Amino acid sequence: MMKVTIDEYLEDGAYLCRYYNDNFKPIRDLRYIARANIIDPDYKTTPALRSLLDNDKLQPKSPGPGQFDIEVMLHKGAEAKDTAMTLQSTVDIGGKVSVGRSLLRICSVDRGTINAISQLDAVRAIGPVIPLKLMNYFAWGDIQLRQATADNDFQGTSGEQYMGQGEVVAIADSGLDLGELGNPHPAFALQPDGAVPAPNRVLALLDAVQEGFPSADHKDRSGHGTHVAASVLGDGLFEDVEKNQSTRGTASKAKLVMQTVVLPDGDGESVAPPIDLHDLFLPPYQQFHARVANNSWGEYWNGVQAIYDDNGMARTCDDFVREKWDHVIVFAAGNDGTLKSETGAQIGGAVAAKNIITVGATHSSRNDSYPNLVAEISSRGPIRNDVHLQHRRIKPDLVAPGVKLVSAKSRHEDMTACGDHDQAFPLLRYSTGTSMAAPIVSGCAATLRSALIHTGRGTAANGNPVGPSAALIKALLINGAITLFDHWGVALPMREQGFGRVDMRNSLPRPPPPGADYPVQHGYVDYGIHPEEPGLAMGHTWDRVMTIRDPGPGQHRRFKVTLVYTDLPGQILQNRLLLTLRHIDTGEQINGNIFEDVVRDNNVQQVVWDNIPTGQVSLRVNAPHIVGPDERQTFAIVWRLYDFNPPPVL
After folding, report:
1. Angle 287-289-294 (CA atoms, 0-180°, nearest 5)?
2. Which residues are within 8 A (CB) of 146 and not within 5 positions of it... i.e. 6 or more apart?
3. How far apart are CA 44 and CA 53, in angstroms?
4. Active-site pick, 98, 177, 220, 224
5. Catalytic residue among 69, 98, 118, 173
6. Handedness of CA 302, 308, 311, 317 (dihedral sign)
7. Which residue among 109, 187, 211, 323 has the highest number of C-beta atoms inside a 10 angstrom radius?
8. What is the distance between the alpha carbons of residues 554 and 556, in angstroms, rounded to a whole number?
9. Average pLDDT in the 362-366 region?
10. Phi, psi dihedral angles at 610 (to 5 degrees)
11. Which residues form the active site (predicted)?
12. Three-state SS for 580?
């Protein structure tokens, strides 16, 4: 009996499979099999590592000429510890081996050793270790958070605004302030008026530095972590209502778990998280119920746009969200937008993951005449796919203000000068980068979760509350985002802005109007997270019919729909869902992602229908390709009907 299991869909009908036999003839004799071959060991070397080997280049932070630090990514089901033992007994790896959940990191190996490692059956890919760094290079008004939370629809029974109450955000960064849990920065332990001490909202300081390095002391010498954390959930430092300015974070009632990932004896910006990011995300998720994770760090630019599998981080992120479906992971897109790239794009590696939210940076309203433009430094997409070395998925997903943002200043006496500050407000400082944009979105994600749960508009199974999925939070943010335009009224390319700039006024779900039969104005479905509806099987569809009513004489409507689903790990889509919007009365149909330079091979799809006619419309999600006969795909779909106005000319 033949035993074959599918590990991953590659592309164009090709699958990576595990076959438990040495005889390929029974497989090759099957009429529906065109070819069946063992993976060529040369195929296992990623483009980034091949470039170093073929051109005799020195690796960034190289261990020496002809020596490389590598990451060995394993096939599904392979045991990392067993593979490490096999390597140590059969290959002269010489250097130090670190073991993760599904990958190994090996230091100081040469070309011959790399070739020997590639012969091992358990090895799926070998890439270079890419050094990591912090992405450091007046947001409320720009993202419409003040207007959104002031709405009576988003206030609790006692009148308080929803600002992340009940949520915990995990932030992996350079530490927090003085590194003392009992002596918190005022941004995290003051009432809004700054007069009366409030409970400390910092739950824990966790050492998340990679094993083998000195333990973290949590002291924020660079000021980066303190600034980022306060952008998410700081409160009480400074408020100028008359000028509509605030230093509150976008989830100023949430709580914090700081995970220090910067080396205490380094340059203050060198990041060394666990080699397997499961070990970064899981502790705050399990121990503190953190459901949002902010990561304002990423890879050094080495002149080549990284692909999904150049290291194990993107795959690990996708795997974690697939397993923990309610966990929102946010990453800064990077600050390499002005650097030369052969593809014209820079986003790659971890931030190419499908199931995370990748955030680019825009200018802001603070001393800036053009807040609607993407910052020059913000890394551009789309991502690169190694199958045909072509551009594929849209990245970044969103943009948010990231230029000269004011936030909390670390009180550490050795803090390096990485941002100016106003002498009148010694606990504040400015900073710029996608590092600053990402926490804006992380806070918005926490606030959305809080609003959904506290208003009872989160999903529920059999009367038991179930928190919103990460896919739903991402869909709400993307569907509510506004398209940015240049000085001439032309929409900025999606490679710069993704699906637009976050706008919480449009993202927060609103209840249906009185007497409405269904919330056509703004609605959502978080499909497949309940046992009674496990998701779509291959060939199945989900449909919803609703009515577009007459907006009145001279008025026009824009109907916007966004589909997001959490895919299986893999550099291309494993499960493929398609979004279509059809007008039942006219027969006209629009498919998802019919935009410039965008393919439908994306687990985020969107339809925007301007001047949509009145009458009945049908939303449909179908599943033309699902990996495995027993596999099911969950999804979130969000829609909103707007009064349509032409784009502004700046």
Report:
1. 105
2. 140, 244, 246
3. 13
4. 224
5. 173
6. positive
7. 187
8. 7
9. 80
10. -80, 145
11. 173, 224, 435
12. strand
- Evaluate if residue 162 carries a pLDDT over 70: yes
Q: DSSP code of 603?
A: S
Helix or strand (DSSP H, E) at 322: helix 313-323
Would you give the distance in Å from CA 393 to the centre of its chain?
13
Res 295 pLDDT > 90:
yes
The letter for the amino acid at 188 is: F
> At 501, is the pLDDT very low, low, confident or very high (cuts 50, 70, 90)?
very high
Phi, psi of 385, deg, nearest 5:
-115, 125
Report the relative pairing of strands 68-74 and 202-207 from DSSP bridges. unpaired
Q: Please tell me what DSSP assigns to residue 208.
A: -
* Helix or strand run (H / E) with residue 331: strand 328-332
DSSP structural state of residue 391: E
Residue 102 has pLDDT above 90, yes or no: no
Do 394 and 440 fall within a single domain?
A: yes
Tokens of 262: 């910067």
Range of the domain at 437: 133-477
Active-site pick, 435, 442, 469, 507: 435
Per the CB < 8 A criterion, the answer to whether 402 and 362 are in contact is: yes
* Predicted TM-score of the model (pTM): 0.90
Of 292, 305, 352, nearest to 570 by C-alpha is 352
Q: Are residues 296 and 185 in the same domain?
A: yes
Provide the strand spans (E) within 232-295: 239-240, 245-246, 255-260, 270-271, 292-295
Instruction: Pick the most confident of 96-105, 126-135, 156-165, 290-299.
Output: 290-299
Burial of 213 (0-12, 13-18, 19+ CB in 10 A): middle
Beta strand residue intervals within 556-599, DSSP E: 557-564, 576-583, 589-591
H helices present in 101-159, as ranges: 111-118, 139-142, 145-150
Domain identity same for 446 and 544: no
* 574 sits in which H/E element: none
What gap in Å lies between CA 347 and CA 588, rounded to an integer?
36
How does DSSP classify residue 300? P
**Residues belonging to the chain:** 650
- Measured CA to CA, the distance from residue 527 to residue 579 in angstroms comes to 14
CA angle, corner 170, sides to 414 and 480, nearest 5? 115
Q: Would residue 7 count as lying in a domain?
A: no
Rounded to 5 degrees, φ, ψ at 246 are -155, 150
Same domain membership, residue 392 and residue 302: yes
- Inside any domain, residue 364: yes
Active site residue 435: yes
Average model confidence (pLDDT) for the chain? 83
Q: What is the CATH number of the domain that holds 56?
A: 3.30.70
Q: What is the mean pLDDT of residues 471-487?
A: 94
> Cα–Cα distance between 113 and 109 in angstroms, integer?
6
DSSP bridge partners of 643: 557
Q: Is residue 344 part of a domain?
A: yes
Cα gap 330→192, rounded to integer Å: 27
Q: How far apart are CA 537 and CA 628, in angstroms?
A: 9
Cis before 396 (ω within 30): yes
Residue 61, pLDDT > 90, answer no
Q: Looking at the domain assignment, is residue 269 inside a domain?
A: yes
Cα–Cα–Cα angle for 152, 251, 442, rounded to 5 degrees: 125
Please confirm, yes or no, whether 278 is among the known catalytic residues: no
Which two structure tokens, joined as six digits, stand for 487? 């000085």
Largest CA distance in the chain: 79
Beta pairing, strands 168-173 & 292-295: parallel
Full DSSP string of 143-166? TTHHHHHHSGGGB-TTS-B-SSTT
Supply the pLDDT for residue 566. Answer: 97
Parallel, antiparallel, or unpaired: how do β-strands 292-295 and 123-128 relate? unpaired
The reply to whether 224 belongs to the active site is yes
